[in-house]
Amino acid sequence: MALTRLQNPTISRLFHNRNFCIYFAGRTVSVVGDSFYSVVLILAVLQSTHSVTSGAMVLLAGTIPIVILTLVGGTVSDRLPRNRVMVSSDLVRSATQFAMAALLLRSSPPLWALMITQFCYGLGDAFFDPASTGLLPQIVASEDLPAANSMLQLSSNSAVVVAPALAGIIIALAGAPLAVALDAVSFLVSAISLYFLTVPRGALALASDSMLDQLRAGFVELRRRKWALVTACYLAFLAFAFNGTIFVLGPAVALSRLGGPSAWSLMLSAFGVGLISGSLVALKLLRTRRALGWAYLGNFGVVPLLALLGTSDSKWFVVGSSALAGLSISVFGVTYPTLLQQTVPKEILSRVGSYFWLARVAPMPLAFAIVGPLSARFGISAVFNVAALSLGVATLVGAGFPEIWAIAGPPREIDDNG
């Protein structure tokens, strides 16, 4: 079939690419470790401090450096060899995770120490993520970028599904500190894989230019690509309206209307299955014309989940809509980075990409801060319904820009049937 004919040669080329194989292996180990940590962190902090507020403060401490330094991370990643920036970030995060594991071995670790450790972890994220956007086009041919992003997203999404269960087993058998230590080891594996990459020289910004000038150049490059500017703004709204409501209020709905914690677990599992499916759908979509436009329209698939969480008492309707939302977000999450990597010059790619990383993270502290009080004032259902309506409108507005439908990768990526 057409999908098989298109996929197999590309994926075969990828796994004959030494650099990609090394990078893929290291990233896969790292995302599994990260998935362990995302499950363990809040649980471990709550068990140690017995305070929901303390848990929120630790999470916020990890977000602050990402918001403040992501743009700087993009600029540094355009000035220095990106794999070296990523190695340094991995080593920083590995050290912080070993420190966190040591803290959690204590019966009552001080809150300030947990916050500082998580802050240092966020520092590593702020530099690693923009560098990773710019690194992939240096080690993978442009025509192979859709498959490369799809495979990386597939491994990441699979970890979202599998790792929580593994983390639960590890916590039950050996405790949270071991799970955090395993995350620290995963960063070491990632750092070693990045160290052995053979990255071509060149395609970097001039180190003689000032940091401020390079930051400004990155924004100018983003602004002159209207599709990229619109998409960055849309990502920020998606993070605020979707992530902010789902992860704060979703568990409360599961407990009050959908049958308890098992409903929340089923919903997250279905979301993960949707994410995995979306990674494969995106690979086909990127071989058609107007891929980004279709990805925008596909993101209407997140609206039913928000609406049903606001109105439905049916666990299975919510679980089904969660799978659809995961698929929609995954397709979008593969499509826009691929087009960014295929159309933005490599020497400025990390700076432009850093705006997208910032857009995904910066709204979260505000969302976490106001969603709770809004739900207390107007009700959880009202918050979900407003989020569904506003996100539907934002998706329609984003899809209405002609530039969203005009952007395409290299001509050889286009399927005439698209």
Keywords summarizing the entry:
418 residues; mainly alpha; Growth Hormone, Chain: A; 2 domains; 82% helix; globular
Task: Describe, in plain words, how this protein is organized in 3D.
By secondary structure, the chain is mainly alpha-helical. It has 2 domains: 10-204, Growth Hormone, Chain: A (Up-down Bundle); 224-418, Up-down Bundle (Growth Hormone, Chain: A), CATH 1.20.1250. 82% of the residues lie in helices and 0% in strands. It has 17 helices and no strands. The protein is globular and about 55 Å long.
Provide a quick synopsis of the model.
The chain is an all-alpha fold and 418 residues long. It is built from 17 helices and no strands.
N→C terminal distance: 15 Å
Contiguous low-pLDDT stretches (5 residues minimum) are 1-7, 412-418
Q: What general outline do the C-alpha atoms trace?
A: globular
Q: In the CATH hierarchy, what is the superfamily of the largest domain?
A: MFS general substrate transporter like domains
CATH class membership of the largest domain: Mainly Alpha
Q: In angstroms, what is the radius of gyration? A: 21 Å
List the helices and strands and how they pair.
Elements: H1 2-14, H2 18-49, H3 52-79, H4 82-104, H5 111-139, H6 145-174, H7 176-195, H8 211-223, H9 226-256, H10 261-285, H11 291-298, H12 303-311, H13 315-343, H14 349-361, H15 363-378, H16 380-399, H17 402-406
